[in-house]
Structure formats: C-alpha cells, structure tokens
Structure prediction request, 204 residues.
Amino acid sequence: MSGANASARQPARRFSGPARAALSLLALLAGAPVLAAEAPEVAQACLSCHGEALAEGAPPIAGHSSNYIQLQLVFFRAGRRKNEIMQGVAEGLSDNDIRALGKYFASLPVPDAKPPADTQPDLTKTGETAALQHRCAACHGDTYLGIQAAPRVARLPEAYLAKALGDYRANTRPSSGGAAMTEVAGSLSDADIKALAHYLAGLP
Ligand code: HEC
Ligand code: HEC
Prediction:
C-alpha cells in the first residue's frame, strides 16, 4: 500500500486510476467483489493489523456494524476500553474520521474464513453447552453473526474471544447495550471463557 497516501488525498468519487486500484485491492483482500464505501485515507493505517492478514492480536473488523465500530473507537479514544495499541491509534482520530471508518469497514463483506480444524471436540461441546446455558445466541443470533448492538462473534480468533470475555469480566472494557456483556461475563468462570472462545472460533 505504499504510495497510496498521496493518491488517496484526491477525491475518489468515480473510483478511477489509483483510487480504483486501491479499492479493488481492498475488495480482493476482503475476498469478494463488492462495491465498498469509499475508503477514507485514514483507513490505510488500519490494514496492517486489520487487513486480510491479522497482526498484533487484532480481530477482523470488516462487516461489523458501523455503530459498533464507531462505539469501540470512541471507547478506545476515551480510554474506557483499554488497549495500548488501539488507544494510541484512536487518540489521533477525529469524530469525522470515526464516522468514515465505521461506514467504510461496515461496507466491507465479513471475511469468509474457514474455521480451523477442531483438535479439541470435547472443549467445543463444553463451549456449546455453556453458550446455551448463558443464552449467548439470544443476543448474538442463532448463527452468532450478530443482531443490532451485539456484534458477530462466530469465527473470531480464539485468543481474541477469550481476551474480550476476560476484559468484560474485569471491567476493563465497557459494554454497550445496557452493559449487557459486563453482566453476562460476570458469571463466567475461566473454564467457561476458554470453552466459549473455542466453540465460537470454530463455528462452521
Ligand atoms: C498495530 C496494530 C493495529 C492497528 C494499526 C490498528 N488496530 Fe485496531 N485493534 C488492534 C488490536 C490488537 C485490537 C484488539 C484490542 C483488544 O484486545 O481490546 C484492535 C481492535 C480494534 C477494534 C475493536 C474490534 C472489536 O471487535 O471490538 C476496532 C473497531 C479497531 N481496532 C479499529 C481500528 C481502526 C479503524 C484502525 C485504523 C484507524 C485500527 N484499528 C488500527 C490492533 C490494531
Ligand atoms: C443481553 C445480550 C447479550 C448476551 C446474552 C450476550 N451478549 Fe455478547 N455482546 C452483546 C453486546 C451488546 C455486545 C457489544 C458490547 C460492546 O459495546 O462492547 C457484545 C459483545 C460481545 C463480544 C465482543 C466481540 C468483539 O468483537 O469484541 C463477545 C466475544 C461476546 N459478546 C460474546 C458473548 C458470549 C460468549 C455470550 C454468552 C456467554 C454473550 N456474548 C452473551 C450482547 C450480549
């Protein structure tokens, strides 16, 4: 993506020249030929961690709702959601950047990553039972692809899922939706978190 900065500065209304090249590359990265919302220049800075290859423990963000993405960026910027990397990133974002980033990443298709081969089917079963017990699907949907304020949690990286649940439980991450996740995570044991993360990461 080097050299993209200068060209992205020009208005890219008609998706021509370098802008089109950048957009088709993004569509390619996201794995589907959709017409994405215009990529704001500031989105280039996100792709090293949230692009096709994930880095630094970052989850995929393509296809989350614009509201969810914007909220998380505001939480990071305000220091209410703790993460050194993302607090540093969000610090430099204006409200307009945040709106544009939310709209842009929400317009990209959900990555259709295949679940990893399940080497621990017993843990998967335990996770499925825990998910039923705690009624996770009531908010996240039967296929865990998300409903309204509750984001997609199917096939996110296992380590990220475990960290997210631990962060809600430790209250180092606020939850929208009337503190829904703070309440849910409060009743989870370490073993529950491990099993739930394994189950959700491996959903077909
Ligand atoms: C150097 C790596 C890196 C860069 C660059 C980066 N991020 Fe992140 N991002 C992360 C990590 C790591 C997390 C997970 C934080 C956590 O565990 O709470 C994250 C989390 C997020 C989340 C929350 C996702 C969720 O499912 O809750 C959003 C939204 C996000 N980043 C947006 C962005 C945007 C927009 C940019 C560019 C302006 C960006 N990030 C740049 C590493 C990065
Ligand atoms: C009452 C509704 C509700 C229930 C029940 C619920 N969730 Fe959530 N969940 C939400 C909402 C709303 C969010 C977004 C919170 C935020 O702003 O961070 C969320 C966020 C999450 C995230 C963060 C995703 C990310 O990308 O960072 C994970 C993981 C998660 N939920 C897993 C679960 C699991 C596992 C269960 C069952 C044990 C569960 N949820 C039950 C509403 C719910």
